[in-house]
Specification:
The complex is a heterodimer. Helices cover 74% and strands 3% of the residues of chain A. By secondary structure, chain A is mainly alpha-helical. Chain A has a single domain, classed as Orthogonal Bundle (ABC transporter involved in vitamin B12 uptake, BtuC), CATH 1.10.3470. By secondary structure, chain B is an alpha/beta fold. Chain B folds into 2 domains: 183 residues, 3-Layer(aba) Sandwich (Rossmann fold); 143 residues, Rossmann fold. In chain B, helix 11 packs across helix 12. The chains are: A mainly alpha, B alpha/beta.
């Protein structure tokens, strides 16, 4: 029943659909690393970005580039606002991590609620038809969407890697992530670093939401469920490891797709929660990657 | 003495005014014949729900424009269920306990099943119009369907696939709730009984937006055709994702897929899709062309789920006929009397869907029209009686 083309298809589709999960995981892991915040507001930003794009592309019939630009602008502005008037204020009051976490969750839920009131719960996509051209390669269906998603994700991941490694601001982000007060002593503004991390995350969120909305449909409560994937990937990849989170997202997508080989498809939705339990119980500091991979992803 | 006389006159005037107001108001209250409509106004199913509500509203307006029922106006109270069982219970509780309707119309199998105990307990007639789970026929004395259940159209499409199209290996993919579970069983039972083979039987969560897992399993089984039984909102996406995985098999479904959004969202992926319609088209019923013109004039489109809207339009006429029976027999408008009226009248001649016969086993039967998507349009394929 599961011949080679099917197995290859499972693998290919898993890798392709991991694209948006990777982007969400990178966004989440970056803010966790730099600002030490479990930024569940990201779910709210995802929802706001999606519906901004939807309004532009579907309702107002804007070109896709313009619609994406609007969604990106909304994501960036909201993320910056949350950092400037949310997290920063709480930090100045010496609020605990728990308080920041509660704030993030509550804000995300509130945004979800507002989006439900504004847009309803009918599933929406960013294109009228989500069918893109299919190429059959050795019995494996490869769509233009798959290729586009992988290209965008790889390009953005490499760009982030280069930015963090080779630019001054990137080095500042690492410095603040390692030791904020010490970085401040060296004249690096921690607040500026936190803001920059949130803005970069917003860019990844906007890209991820665009890819998701051109392949599947979104409802206002969907982002919180998508966040779960990002959280698991962040923990599994090692808290503090951005590219570890990305690799973990690919792994989780492969695991979820391959699970149909052994479990009924009706149980697939619960697999994410099962994996979360396993990760928290047995890999709370992340999965131990092989040494050569750790060298590449360590602290990055 | 003068003060006392004035006070007494004032009280008498007040009493007379109150009586006059009550006398004037009473006929107005008695002239309104109420019934409830619990449908998705919002939520993922609202694209069908809103059009069905509109159809029913038009029917009520048409009936009242012609004088109502023996001079009394029909009044429809619409409440939102979102196609959700919990919200359906809230809506029906309000219709029954606050609005005191003797009859209500509802749809979506999950909702119908959830509210059935309320109808039976409170002895209020529940008319299921649109839901197709075969279990609906067994939900109690006060629950009747005025719409054929899945064992009519789904069985017909299963037979057509095997006997007319000659496809013996079919995969079934269905939504994991009351709409999909029982209907998928009907398809499987009928198809296997007729000599076919179900090579995959996969399900997906009602809230899912990515169906890759279930679809890959279906693809792995290499079926000749695929039967899809889902909800209105996600079926176009299932078909679109099916095509994205290189699955080119022809797809069959039920009336829920007979939806302009199917072609819009699935694009060329919808070509060849076979759906059912349990309502007559314009060739079979001349009233339908005027109905479609009305939609084009009002909304510049045909309705989502055209056959369902035809049944919902007729639901107001069905309720009007029940009230007419009560009025003629001078019976009070209670749920018990409504139920007796339904069984006493039994055969209804309705404007959009034609003759409706309520069977003793709480079911109705109708001819099944099969349609297919050809060049982006739904065109007639066959009629199964």
């Amino acid at each position: 029943m599961f011949d080679l083309p099917i197995l290859l298809q499972i693998g290919w589709t898993a890798v392709a659909t991991s694209a948006y999960y990777v982007l969400f995981a990178i966004a989440f892991a970056l803010t966790l690393k730099v600002a030490q915040v479990w930024n569940f507001v990201q779910a709210g930003v995802m929802g706001l970005a999606f519906y901004a794009m939807w309004l532009a592309m579907i309702r107002w019939q804007w070109p896709h580039a313009a619609g994406f630009a609007l969604g990106l602008a909304v994501a960036v502005v909201v993320s910056a606002a949350v950092e400037a008037w949310g997290f920063r204020v709480l930090r100045q009051r010496n609020s605990s991590s728990l308080m920041l976490f509660i704030f993030a969750i509550v804000l995300a839920e509130f945004i979800s609620y507002l989006l439900t009131l504004a847009f309803g719960t009918e599933p929406e996509t960013l294109t009228k038809s989500i069918v893109s051209e299919v190429h059959l390669v050795g019995g494996v269906a490869i769509t233009n969407w798959d290729l586009r998603a992988l290209a965008i994700t790889i390009a953005m991941s490499l760009a982030l890697f280069a930015y963090l490694r080779f630019t001054r601001n990137g080095q500042f982000l690492y410095a603040v992530a390692d030791n904020g007060p010490l970085a401040e002593l060296y004249g690096i503004s921690a607040n500026r670093a936190y803001l920059l991390a949130m803005v970069i995350s917003a860019v990844f969120v906007a890209a991820g939401v665009y890819l998701y909305g051109t392949r599947a449909s979104m409802i206002p409560t969907q982002p919180l469920e998508l966040m779960l994937f990002a959280v698991i990937a962040t923990i599994l990849g090692g808290i503090g490891s951005i590219h570890g989170a990305a690799l973990a997202a690919v792994f989780l997508s492969l695991l979820q797709s391959a699970s149909i080989l052994v479990i009924p498809s009706a149980w697939q939705g619960s697999l994410t929660y099962f994996v979360l339990f396993i990760v928290i119980l047995f890999f709370p500091t992340g999965f131990r990657f092989p040494a050569w991979l750790r060298r590449v992803t360590r602290g990055r | 003495m003068i003060r006392s006389f004035t006070a007494h006159a004032g009280v008498r005037a007040l009493v007379f005014a109150s009586i006059a107001a009550a006398v004037c108001a009473a006929p107005a209250l008695a002239q309104t014949l109420k019934f409830g409509l619990a449908m998705p106004l919002t939520g993922s199913q609202s694209s069908f729900g809103k059009d069905q509500i509109k159809a029913a509203e038009w029917a009520v307006a048409d009936i009242n424009a012609k004088g109502g029922v023996n001079g009394k106006k029909l009044e429809m109270i619409v409440l939102d269920t979102q196609g959700d069982a919990t919200l359906g219970i809230n809506a029906v509780n309000r219709l029954v306990n606050v609005d005191k309707v003797p009859v209500f119309v509802t749809a979506w199998s999950a909702v119908v099943k959830a509210v059935a105990p309320i109808a039976n307990r409170e002895k209020v007639l529940a008319l299921s119009i649109g839901a197709n789970s075969p279990d609906i026929a067994k939900l109690g004395d006060y629950v009747y369907t005025a719409f054929p259940l899945a064992d009519v159209d789904v069985a017909a499409v299963a037979n057509y696939t095997l006997k007319t199209l000659g496809k013996k290996r079919v995969a079934v993919i269905y939504v994991n709730n009351e709409t999909g579970i029982e209907a998928a069983k009907v398809y499987r039972t009928q198809f296997e009984k007729s000599g076919g083979q179900i090579v995959a039987y996969e399900t997906y969560d009602p809230k899912a937006t990515d169906f890759t897992g279930a679809l890959l399993k279906v693809r792995a089984a290499n079926p000749e055709m695929i039967h899809l039984h889902g909800l209105v909102a996600e079926m176009p996406l299932v078909i679109a994702q099916m095509r994205q995985l290189g699955m080119t098999q022809r797809v069959t479904s039920y009336a829920g897929a007979y939806n302009p959004q199917m072609v819009e969202k699935a694009g060329k992926g919808a070509e060849g899709l076979i759906v059912t319609s349990l309502a007559p088209d314009a060739r079979q019923n001349p009233n339908v062309s005027g109905y479609l013109e009305r939609w084009k004039k009002a909304e510049n489109r045909i309705p989502n789920g055209l056959p369902y809207t035809q049944y919902l339009y007729d639901s107001a006429y069905l309720v009007a006929a029940l009230y007419d029976h009560l009025e003629k027999n001078k019976l009070p408008a209670t749920g018990e009397n409504m139920r007796r009226a339904l069984l006493a009248v039994k055969t209804f001649d309705l404007p959009m869907t034609g003759k409706l016969v309520i069977n003793e086993d709480h079911t109705v039967r109708k001819p099944v029209n099969l349609l297919t998507v050809q060049d982006g349009q739904f065109v007639p394929l066959a009629t199964v009686d």
